[in-house]
Design brief:
The strands form 4 sheets. This protein has a 7-stranded mixed beta sheet, with helices on both faces. Strands 2-6-5-4-1-3 form a 6-stranded mixed beta sheet. A 5-stranded mixed beta sheet has the order 7-8-9-10-11. About 30% of the residues lie in helices and about 30% in strands. It is α/β, with parallel strands linked by helices.
Length: about 400
Amino acid sequence: MALVYIQPGHVQPIWAGHPWVYSRAIKRIEGYCAPGDAVDVIDPSGKFLGRGFISPDSAIVVRILTRREGETLDAEFLSRRIDAAVDMRRSVAGLPSQQTTGYRLINSEGDDLGGLVVDVYGDVVVVQFLTVGMKKRENEIFEILQTRVNGTSIYEVGRTKHQREEGISCQTRIARGREAEAIVFLENGIEFEADISEGQKTGFYFDQRDNRQAIARMCVGRGVLDLFCYSGPFSICALVGGAASCTCVDSSMRALMAAEKNARRNRVEDRIRIVNKNVQTYLTDAIIKEEKFDVVIVDPPNFAHTVRDKESALKAYKKLNAYAIRVTKSGGLVATSCCSGQVSMTEFLRILGMASREANVTMRIVDTRGAAPDHPFSPAFEQGRYLKFVVGEIRT
């Protein structure tokens, strides 16, 4: 097994539990290893730090999977880790349940399986391989999942830049079982259909489940604006919960068609309005027309994938939220998200403070939240705490 030696000055985060070994942290590699092989990570004094799969061409060269020196990263190891993930969802998150059949089963580093994401949609399992190490073990992973999850189909999804950076080719395909006519599931009693063929992530954003329920309770009898609505989960949850109306804005017509379909599934299509427009353009027009909403939901994509993106992303988040605040009624609410692991909650709150001053209003934070409990993260891995969800009351 090859040995990856760490530079002096780069040991502490890895020793403390951070699972990523960046290329700049590596002093040398001793021994032969092919992409996806298991390697040992060693500190400058020769002490064992961890074992993981190597991706030589990636900025993250090693993703550590175990801190036990004698543990082999074989099928039995994968089976134990998947069992632990299944047990946690059942015992801690209560998933699946009669009310919720869509959830995240394996959350990559959060379940000590860096590079592997598995979502469950009723009786369909969707798998995403983000590293060459996990992709090389796809058959073992599919076989384990077949015996652990009561599903009729296992799909693999591709289309992420992480896969391209890892040098792996992943296509959306059915890997085990039969093809599903429709991928339908429940979230807190609400029925949704996911699009895994061309949708985002694996087809849905389970991390916002509890946040959707929380903001829906604040939307009763109110007019809602849902920005970056995707397939409409925030809007439909709000409408089922008693919102008076929802305006859904997204630049993707395909996503809006899915939102309309999900609205019909839940018999709320008479209170939903879809707008196929760039969000910033829509907000600019709404400000000119002096349109105002009781509740504005802002759920943008990740603006900062890397450290290099951070400064421009902070400016974009501030501009977006300043515009969203300006179309919120006095006494209304802005429910806004940031899904970048590069931006901390402290930084995001500072951005919202600056945005409210720019909009010449006062914002009072009434709730701060993160991802649902089926998205666990390590305390040593700040990037795993990527989702920030903030609800603020606006006063002019």
